Amino acid sequence: MNLVVALPGEVLPQEYFDVRYEVLRKPLGSPRGSELLSDDNTAIHAYISFYDKIVAVGRIQLIVGDGSVKDPVGSNCPAFELLSDGIKTVLTDDKGQPFASNLRPAVQVRQMGTLPEFQGKGFAAKILFALEEAAKQNWNARTGWLQARLAAIAFYKKCGWTSYGVEYEVNKVGAHRSMWKKL
Ligand SMILES: CC(C)(COP(=O)(O)OP(=O)(O)OC[C@H]1O[C@@H](n2cnc3c(N)ncnc32)[C@H](O)[C@@H]1OP(=O)(O)O)[C@@H](O)C(=O)NCCC(=O)NCCS
Q1: What pLDDT digit, counting tens, does each position of 52-87 carry?
Q2: CA distance 137 to 13
Q3: Which of 9-13, 84-88, 94-98, 132-136 has the least mean pLDDT?
Q4: How many angstroms is it from 21 CA to the middle of ligand 1?
Q5: Probe ligand 1: pick from 35, 48, 118, 158, max atoms within 8 Å of CB?
Q6: Residue 100's pLDDT is what?
Q7: In this structure, which topology does domain 2-182 adopt according to CATH?
Q8: Which residue did the predictor score with more confidence, 143 or 82?
Q9: Is residue 109 a contact partner of residue 131, using CB atoms and an 8 Å limit?
Q10: Poorest-pLDDT segment among 21-25, 76-80, 157-161
Q11: What is the Å distance from ligand 1's center to 151 Cα?
């Protein structure tokens, strides 16, 4: 097993995007090309190779605005309202400890996927942890945010993330909940 972390601007192998397409786009019936995000060049990426085959991928980006995004598949992910400047919110982390203010620099995890035959081997957890560490080192990230498909919430919880707020529908993808983590 080999874990690679690619910093912003580094060239990613085509296979990285092939895995992203297979796991996250093809099941939605989305065309090839929809796996490419316009800000991939400014994100940090991580992937795992197993016997020279990329089997798991993920990315993290600095949140400049409110975290809302419009995807190439035509879906709209809503803002992380708690991040909006001026909101005084006391969040509770996964250990029940209060964590208030200074939520930024904040980062967003997206496009996490493991090929079905390689799931359950701890690959995505390794990728997520590597992304969190890289975001702390490179951007001094204080909090992480993501929009989780319902089926993935248990995975993120195992990795120390906390869900909050109501469930919402992301067009063309399905039901989601927002999650956060103190980094
Ligand atoms: C979510 C996903 C990335 C997890 O990948 P994975 O490589 O199988 O995850 P890991 O093996 O690293 O799992 C880490 C831990 O989470 C647990 N876990 C993973 N998926 C789980 C699930 N669906 N339900 C419950 N627990 C789960 C594992 O059992 C493991 O627990 P352990 O540490 O006690 O052994 C993978 O299922 C996937 O690609 N799903 C389809 C795409 C997707 O939904 N991506 C997320 C979009 S928000």
Answers
A1: 999 999 999 999 888 888 877 777 788 888 776 544
A2: 23
A3: 84-88
A4: 17
A5: 158
A6: 60
A7: Aminopeptidase (3.40.630)
A8: 143
A9: yes
A10: 76-80
A11: 9
- For residue 160, report the distance from its CA to the centre of ligand 1, in Å: 13
Q: What is the Å distance from ligand 1's center to 179 Cα?
A: 15
Please state whether beta strands 143-149 and 106-114 pair in parallel, antiparallel, or not at all (unpaired): parallel
Task: Say which amino acid occupies 180.
Answer: W
- Domain extents in the chain: 2-182
Looking at 43-173, which runs of residues are DSSP E strands? 44-50, 53-62, 69-70, 76-77, 90-92, 98-100, 106-114, 143-149, 162-170
Phi, psi of 77 (to 5 degrees): -95, 130
Question: What predicted TM-score, i.e. pTM, was given to this entire model?
Answer: 0.93
* Rounded CA separation 87/106 (Å): 15
